[in-house]
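As a warm-up, study this chain.
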Amino acid sequence: MKSILDNPKKRRSFREFLYVLPFLVLVFLFSYYPLYGWFYAFFDYRPPYPLELKNFVGLKWFLSMMENSVKRRQVFNVLRNTFATSGLNLIFSWFPMMFAVFLNEINCKPFKKVVQTVTTLPNFISWVLVYSIAYCVLNSTGVVNQVLIGLGITTEPILFLQSSKHIWFKMWLWNTWKNAGWAAIMYIAAITGIDEQMIEAAKVDGATRMQVIRYITIPSILPTYFVLVMLQIANFLSNGMEQFFVFQNSFNKETIQVLDLYVYNLAMGNGGYSLSTAISMLKSVVSVILLVVTNTLSKRIRGEGFI
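Now compare it with the structure written out below.
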């Protein structure tokens, strides 16, 4: 310790380490320490009794996902919903970037601030409140149905929330409405880092605003876009649970139940704690593999990785 304090460089490094130490402790407590719960996947666990060696079943729950035809069909159906939802998010991953690009082109600063505030605020609204808004607007006696019936467009209420049709696209729309403004902040920060002299030189040479966007703005923020896309691919199996939990009902359960929601329903609804833990373990392993693969591809294609 004395040799560290005597060396200015080592002293500075030690001080910087102390800065991040509290965050490392939080990461350990909330991300790594709970992994001890993976032991439940190898036992026939029944709460509230503690784990005992006599209840050890090995890989029983992992094998049961493939051996049991009912569970296999359920898992395949859940994976289909997960892949479809994550695929839509991946296909439209460019939307926040383009939103940030065109938002940056607004010259009226008060209007620009209003747009940015209005589109960012939904990120801080809980999914429970989002569903409350959706229920008030889209239920059978909601505003939309009242307007449609009043205009004579339809004679019966349209079941927007109960219907399973286009449920993946509906979930993408709600997710985009809630998170697009927040996701655009990173692109706006990247845009502010673009050299203004380069833009001014392009304008002097006669470049239009669209040409500046095409040849300067977008190429400058593409590295940020690629990193975020790679991270999105690594989290391909993680859709979150809150959105799908509040929007699920008996009419759309087959098409809205993604992997995270399935694990929750399996554990809390059916008491299948061990099986749900096994599925969560497999999801984590696949996510780590996807992270390594995408990082490797990033190094080969772009020359640099993100981890």
